[in-house]
Design goal:
This protein is α+β, with helices and mostly antiparallel strands. It folds into three domains: 24-80 and 189-243 and 330-384, FAD/NAD(P)-binding domain (3-Layer(bba) Sandwich); 130-185 and 244-327, 2-Layer Sandwich (D-Amino Acid Oxidase, Chain A, domain 2); 389-449, no CATH class. It has eleven helices and 23 strands. The chain has helices at residues 2-11, 20-23, 48-59, 92-99, 101-124, 145-156, 187-194, 299-310, 354-369, 377-380, 387-407; strands spanning 37-44, 64-67, 83-84, 132-133, 136-140, 161-164, 175-179, 183-184, 200-201, 206-210, 213-216, 220-228, 245-256, 264-267, 274-278, 281-290, 315-327, 333-338, 341-348, 424-426, 431-433, 440-441, 447-449.
């Protein structure tokens, strides 16, 4: 009775959070799968990674089918800040120290190639997606030594990096790493155009994959190759991705009017922000944390205070959250799903950098599926073992999963249908979240993010 009362009391507070992208674009709908089908490649997931992979495979002459449980771009692609950049926080000095300079160089080269490929595609196909070349900055108001080291490392690896002390931010910085030749765009407008000639079946939920059979709620697709591009792989074995990844949530607010800051920005300090203009609007991001472990103070309240202080003439327009898959060594998993399933492929674990990672994944997977090798295969291989890079994260991730699984055995717990972890309520996002693997559910129990595939019967 208490649970039912709580549900109806809080339901009135819950509003579907929409982003600037979902509110300002319309992608024409596609029909569900009409029944059983055969194809050469089936791609599961119609986000940026899945659509780009299908696009390149089709350009290579393969017959490709994309299946999507909801709508094209309805997942994380619609809630990104859409920075197209090879600047991935303090990544390059870390990679050199933990996995070696050659791996770090290839990681940077793959992502810079991805940045440049967007520009080529957009120009070649005359895609109208508010594409703007824009420098990217990694800044600090407290220190400069770590940024200087990162800039020198990235430049040595062949990236367009330099250390600067002046930015377009409305406050002084101690230092910043500047990457030239980067860009920003409207991801759903891009997705709308690049997906126009693809065979996509929306509102078609994949239930399971057995060998070459992709079983959906609308029929079975028999394929020679299967690509998992569904954000977080929902198949637990083989692959064991649940043991190799976790998810993080972050918060974004949109303000207007805000003059151009002449760059895309990310802070490295403990209480730092992400900045990115969209015309005369500003996307202000903050508050990244492991999904299921929300902070005591509201990230939205913190963002609003910061926005009011920095841009007193601006008003809040909307707010939303984003969720990202994090690997243990900070490198995405792109390539064969498992040595036991040579015809399955995966693209996941993009961290906060889904734009460049999606393009890199599409180029790598399309090459592998068509029988070509790339210099990047080993770098992103899901079968790699970087123990030095992953050791600390592996221990903390394992501990959180054990705690969540143990709490799930308590009578009366609201459990995740993925592996039984006890769900927790995010009072800022108004969703149930799994602290183990990051699945999330609306107030009524409807699933909003995997790897779980089923909703939860909240009111029983």
């Amino acid at each position: 009775m208490v649970r039912i009362f709580w549900y109806f009391n809080i339901k009135n507070e819950v509003k579907k959070m929409k982003s600037v992208w979902t509110e300002s674009s319309v992608i024409p709908g596609r029909n569900p799968l009409p029944g059983n089908k055969r194809t050469e490649v089936v791609v599961i997931g119609a986000g940026l990674a899945g659509i780009l992979t299908a696009f390149y495979l089709q350009r290579h002459g393969l017959h490709v089918v994309v299946v999507e449980a909801n709508r094209i771009g309805s997942g994380q692609t619609g809630y990104t800040t859409a920075k197209i950049t090879s600047q991935h926080n303090l990544i390059y000095d870390k990679l050199v120290r933990t996995v070696g300079e050659e791996t770090a160089r290839l990681y940077g080269k793959a992502n810079q190639m991805a940045v440049e490929e967007y520009g080529k595609l957009i120009k070649r196909y005359s895609i109208h997606c508010h594409y703007e070349p824009m420098d990217a900055y990694l800044y600090s108001v407290q220190e400069s030594e770590v940024l200087l080291r990162e800039a020198e490392c990235a430049a040595r690896l062949g990236l367009p990096a330099s250390f600067v002390r002046q930015t377009g931010l409305p406050f002084p910085v101690h230092g910043a790493v500047r990457f030239t030749g980067q860009a920003q765009f409207h991801p759903l407008e891009f997705l709308r155009d690049i997906s126009a000639e693809l065979t996509i079946f929306e509102r078609t939920k994949v239930i399971k994959v057995q060998g070459h059979d992709v079983v959906t709620d609308k029929g079975v697709i028999k394929a020679e190759k299967v690509v998992f591009a569904s954000h977080y792989p929902f198949v637990n074995m083989p692959g064991f991705y649940f043991a190799k990844m976790y998810q993080e949530k972050s918060y974004v607010m949109e303000f207007e009017p805000v003059e151009s800051l002449h760059g895309m920005y990310l802070g490295i300090d403990e209480r730092a922000y992400s900045f990115r203009n969209v015309g005369d609007k500003l996307l202000l991001g903050y508050g990244s944390h492991r999904t299921g472990k929300a902070p005591k103070d509201s990230p939205f309240s913190t963002i609003k205070r910061a926005g009011g202080h920095l841009f007193p003439e601006a008003r809040e327009i909307r707010r939303w959250t984003a969720q990202d898959c994090m690997t243990l060594d900070s490198i995405p998993y792109i390539g064969p799903f498992s040595s036991l399933r040579p015809d399955w492929y995966v693209a996941t674990g993009f961290g906060k950098w889904g734009m460049s990672s999606s393009m890199a994944a599409a180029k790598i997977l399309s090459a592998q599926i068509t029988g070509r090798k790339t210099p990047y295969d080993g770098v992103f291989s899901p079968q790699r073992h970087h123990l030095k890079a992953a050791a600390g994260t592996l221990a903390s991730h394992g501990l959180e999963s054990v705690k969540g699984l143990s709490a799930g055995t308590i009578p009366g717990a609201v459990n995740c249908p993925h592996m039984g972890c006890r769900l927790v309520w995010n009072r800022y996002d108004k969703r149930w979240e799994c602290p183990c693997h990051g699945s999330s559910f609306e107030i009524n129990g409807k699933i909003s993010a995997g790897p779980a595939q089923q909703s939860i019967p909240f009111i029983d």
